[in-house]
C-alpha cells in the first residue's frame, strides 16, 4: 500500500489521528465525489447511526430508542434515500433511483424530479411504469403512452389503470385522451376536405366542417378508427373540463353521421352511443338541461335495477350532481342505490352530495332507519361548522 494516498491507508490514518467521525466523513465525501452511490448510501447509514450514538452496524446489540431519537433516525435515513435516489435518477439510472426513493413519500418532489428526466427510447417504458403505474406523475406517464404506444394502448391503459386514480388526475388523463383523438380526427378531416375542395378551412371547428359536407361520410367514409372514437366519448365522461365537454360533443356529432355499420351500442344508459352521449355533454355544457336530465331519468327507471344493473341510475345521479341538482341526486341515491350491489362507482358517494343541513338531515334519517350508527355519526359530525355549531340547527 502507498501510505498517504491509498484510501485504505487514509481511512486508518484518519481514524487513528482524528477519530471515527472524521474517518466516516472522509468516506462519505469520497463516495459522493466518485458518484459511487450504493457505497455512499451504506456509509451515510453508518454516519447517521454514529451521530445518534448507536452502534454503526444495525443489529450489533438490542436497540431500544426513545421516540425522539427514533424519529431523528427515520428522518435522516429518508434524507439519505432522497439524496442517493435523486442522484441516481439524474444519472439516468431510474430503476436504481426509484428503489431508494420509494420510501420518501414526497410526491411533489418526486413528480418534479421525474419530470426533469430527459426522455429517450431506453427509459420511456420505465418512466411510464414509475410515473403512471406508481402514480408519481400520471400526466407525464400517460402522455408517453399516447406518444409512444399509440391511441389503442392509451385507451386500454386508461381502462385498466387510470380509472383507479383520484378523480382530479383521472379527469386530466381523460382530457388528454379526448384532445388527442379530437386533434387526430380534425387533422384527417381537414386533409380529406383539402383533397376535394380548393383548400381546407382555416378556422372553425370539427362541427362546422362536417355540418354541410355529408360527402365526407359517403360510401362508409370515416377518418379514424371508429372504436377509438366511441372510446373517446365514453372516457370523456370522466372529464371535468368544459373544453373537453365541447370536444366530446363535436365527436358525438361526427359519430352520428357515420354509417350504420359503425354505430356501436354501448352499455345502458348509453345504448345509442353518440345520441345519448351528445345529450349528456349538452347538459354539462348548459344546453337543454331539463330535457337532457329527463332523458336520463327515463332511462334510469325504464327497467328495474335487478335486470338493468345500477349503471343507468348511477349515471343519472352523476348527471344530476354535475348539473347542480345535488339534493335531487341525493334522494335518488338513497332510494335506489343505498342497498344495491354491486355499484360501479359512477356516482359520487352520498356524503359527497350533501351540502346543507337539510341534506344531512335526510341522510341521518336514512342511516337511523338502517341502524347504521357510523353513517349517522359521520353526518352529524360533517354538519358541524368550524365553530362547533351544527348546521342541523333551525331545520324544520
Summarize the structure.
By secondary structure, the chain is mainly alpha-helical.
Report on this model:
With 396 residues, the protein is mainly α. Among the domains are: 1-105, no CATH class; 355-396, no CATH class. The chain has 20 helices and no strands. The model has no long low-confidence stretch (mean pLDDT 91).
Poorly predicted runs? none
- Principal-axes shape call: flat
SSE sequence, one letter per element: HHHHHHHHHHHHHHHHHHHH
Strand content: under 5%
Q: List the total number of helices.
A: 20
Gap between N and C termini = 91 Å
The major beta sheet can be summarized as: none
Overall mean pLDDT: 91
Q: Count of DSSP E strands?
A: 0
Radius of gyration: 30 Å
The quaternary organization reads as single chain
Q: What structural class should be given to the helix and strand makeup?
A: mainly alpha
Helix content: 55-70%
Amino acid at each position: 500500500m502507498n501510505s498517504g494516498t491509498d484510501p485504505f491507508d487514509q481511512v486508518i490514518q484518519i481514524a487513528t489521528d482524528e477519530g471515527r467521525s472524521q474517518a466516516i466523513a472522509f468516506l462519505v465525501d469520497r463516495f459522493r465525489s466518485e458518484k459511487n452511490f450504493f457505497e455512499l448510501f451504506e456509509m451515510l447509514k453508518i454516519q447517521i447511526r454514529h451521530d445518534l450514538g448507536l452502534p454503526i452496524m444495525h443489529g450489533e446489540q438490542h436497540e431500544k430508542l426513545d421516540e425522539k431519537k427514533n424519529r431523528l433516525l427515520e428522518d435522516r435515513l429518508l434524507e439519505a434515500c432522497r439524496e442517493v435516489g435523486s442522484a441516481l435518477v439524474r444519472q439516468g439510472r431510474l430503476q436504481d433511483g426509484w428503489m431508494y426513493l420509494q420510501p420518501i413519500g414526497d410526491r411533489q418532489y418526486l413528480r418534479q424530479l421525474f419530470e426533469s428526466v430527459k426522455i429517450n427510447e431506453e427509459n420511456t417504458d420505465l418512466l411510464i411504469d414509475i410515473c403512471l403505474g406508481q402514480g408519481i406523475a400520471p400526466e407525464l406517464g400517460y402522455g408517453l403512452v399516447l406518444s409512444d404506444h399509440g391511441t389503442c394502448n392509451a385507451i386500454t391503459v386508461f381502462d385498466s389503470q387510470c380509472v383507479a386514480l383520484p378523480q382530479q388526475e383521472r379527469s386530466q388523463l381523460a382530457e388528454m385522451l379526448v384532445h388527442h383523438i379530437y386533434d387526430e380526427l380534425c387533422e384527417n378531416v381537414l386533409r380529406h376536405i383539402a383533397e376535394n375542395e380548393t383548400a381546407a378551412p382555416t378556422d372553425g371547428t370539427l362541427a362546422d366542417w362536417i355540418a354541410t359536407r355529408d360527402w365526407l361520410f359517403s360510401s362508409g367514409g370515416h377518418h379514424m378508427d371508429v372504436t377509438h372514437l366511441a372510446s373517446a366519448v365514453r372516457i370523456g365522461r370522466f372529464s371535468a373540463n368544459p373544453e373537453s365537454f365541447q370536444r366530446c360533443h363535436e365527436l358525438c356529432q361526427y359519430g352520428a353521421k357515420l354509417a350504420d355499420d359503425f354505430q356501436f351500442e354501448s352499455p345502458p344508459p348509453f345504448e345509442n352511443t353518440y345520441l345519448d352521449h351528445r345529450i349528456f355533454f349538452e347538459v354539462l355544457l348548459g344546453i337543454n338541461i331539463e330535457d337532457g336530465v329527463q332523458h336520463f331519468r327515463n332511462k334510469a327507471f325504464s327497467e328495474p335495477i335487478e335486470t338493468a344493473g345500477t349503471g343507468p341510475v348511477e349515471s343519472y345521479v352523476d348527471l344530476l350532481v354535475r348539473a347542480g341538482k345535488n339534493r335531487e341526486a341525493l334522494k335518488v341515491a338513497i332510494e335506489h342505490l343505498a342497498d344495491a350491489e354491486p355499484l360501479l362507482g359512477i356516482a359520487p358517494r352520498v356524503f359527497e352530495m350533501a351540502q346543507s343541513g337539510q341534506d344531512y338531515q335526510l341522510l341521518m334519517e336514512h342511516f337511523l332507519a338502517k341502524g347504521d350508527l357510523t353513517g349517522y355519526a359521520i353526518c352529524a359530525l360533517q354538519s358541524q361548522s368550524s365553530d362547533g355549531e351544527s348546521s342541523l340547527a333551525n331545520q324544520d
